[in-house]
Write a structure and sequence with these properties.
The protein has a single domain (about 1-150), classed as Cytidine Deaminase, domain 2. It is of the alpha+beta class. The chain contains three helices and ten strands, in the order E-E-H-E-E-E-E-H-E-H-E-E-E.
C-alpha cells in the first residue's frame, strides 16, 4: 500500500499490512494491538519493510495499547546494525478493532512526542480500525494526515 502526504510517499510492504490486519480477527481483536514500524528513508520518501508485534510486557486493553516491552527497541537496533545503518525505526502502528480508525487525543499527544524525539527523520503513524486505515506523517511538530494512493489497474 502507498500513502501520500503532499509530494512525499510512504510505501508499506504487503507483509507488514497483513501482519497488522491479523490483529482485527478473533481472538486478537478483543484488545488493541501495536508495535513499531521499521524501514528506510529514500530521499523524502519512506519505505516500511517490517513491523514488530505486541510483546509480553506490552499492555493491551479494549481501548488502549501501551508499548512497554523493550523488545521493540531491541528489534530496531538489530535491524539498524544488520542493514549497515539503513533500516531503522520509522514510526508506529496500532489497532482500533471494531472502532473508527480516527486517532484519539492520546494518540495525537503521543505522536507529537515521538515526532519531536525522532532525530533520524519523519515518523509514520498507522491505525487499522474497523472502518479502514488512518495514516499520518509527523515531521518536526507537524502531523499531516496521509491519503491512500489507489493502485494502478493496468
Amino acid at each position: 500500500m502507498i500513502f501520500r502526504a503532499g509530494m512525499r510517499l510512504v510505501v508499506v510492504h504487503n507483509q507488514v499490512m497483513m501482519r497488522i490486519e491479523r490483529y482485527l480477527r478473533v481472538p486478537e481483536n478483543a484488545t488493541e494491538a501495536g508495535g513499531i514500524l521499521i524501514g528506510c528513508y529514500r530521499g523524502p520518501h519512506i519505505e516500511i519493510t517490517e513491523c514488530s508485534e505486541p510483546l509480553r510486557r506490552d499492555r493491551r486493553a479494549q481501548l488502549r495499547f501501551d508499548r512497554d516491552d523493550p523488545g521493540h527497541q531491541g528489534l530496531a537496533k538489530r535491524r539498524w546494525t544488520e542493514s549497515g545503518r539503513t533500516h531503522t525505526f520509522v514510526g508506529e502502528w496500532h489497532t482500533h478493532p471494531g472502532f473508527s480508525s480516527t486517532p484519539s487525543g492520546i494518540d495525537l499527544k503521543t505522536w507529537r512526542e515521538v515526532t519531536r524525539n525522532n532525530l533520524a527523520g519523519s515518523s509514520v503513524f498507522l491505525i487499522r480500525g474497523g472502518d479502514g486505515w488512518w495514516a499520518g506523517l509527523g515531521a518536526g511538530r507537524i502531523l499531516t494526515r496521509m491519503s491512500i494512493v489507489p493502485p494502478d489497474d493496468e
